[in-house]
Amino acid sequence: xxxxxxxxxxxxHILFEPTGSAEMPDISGLMExxxxxxxxxxxxxxxRGPSVVKEAQKFSAAGVKTVYGVCDLVDNEMARVTDATIVxxxxxxxxxxxxxxxxxxxxxxxxxxPEFHKxxxxxxxxxxxxxxxxxxxxxxxxxxxxxxxxxxxxxFIDITVVGHYPPNxxxxxxxxxxxxxxxxxxxxxxxxxxLTRLVNKGFKTVNWDIDTVYQMxxxxxVGIIPVNMNEASQWQLSSxxxxxxxxxxxxxxxxxxxxxxxxxxxxxxxxxxxxxRDDWVKYLKELSDPKLRExxxxxxxxxxxxxxSKEEQARKLVAVFDSLCAQGIGSSA
Length: 333
Fold this sequence. Notes:
alpha/beta; 38% helix; 333 residues; six-stranded parallel beta sheet; single chain
């Protein structure tokens, strides 16, 4: 966002950056630095806790405006002590206490590389149409060895999971991973199912990096985001970032009914929301039709490429800062 802020006459400075992951860091002692540098808006990016609350109150008392930016949780205390709170979805905004709603603004995660998009016009070479398997991609921050909801992939589909995996795993690592995974399963049927998935040639894992993600999506026919909604309550608060990543590429997407996804997907037009395994199999079969994939993929890209662009999200963020400036402050952040 820095280039967009500078273009809007805001000069960003990083005042505090923890050496490691720290959601509740100690940020005491920043008041002198803020005064020396003439900072007039402080943006707390995903940091909270007692120290942050205390400093936010100090800044407010000194006439410095404060903004809290958060993507996946509800913190009414931070909303109370800051002048504005930035959240990434309308659903997340709605989870905050009603008395803070006027202070809460939605700025989505922007599509980072809109220049990447699929071409559809030519069928795959050297393959008969009837023998072509549907290629699906699942992008995750986890190390999945089992696909939620879908479980064992249907025979007509190949799934590539781009996630947290060793780049070049040795046979010994793979053997240890398999052993511990089997030990974590209770019944013989669960262990058998796990081994079946392990040898399934239609299931491939790839280590995540920024270039690999786009390469795998460009090669895929469809993006999938299956989520076990019964086990992952945090998903209720998740942004639509993974969804718009796939849709921005021009992939038709099938996704679980995460609240933020349901506000983006128009059922059967730019994607599908699937709840049961039967739903998943049905929609995957429908997307075996290349003409439907092309139509839905183009519609998916068109529906998100401007709405979730970095430029549009920067415009919304600048509007929040401008509203603070209208209260009588300057234009440094």
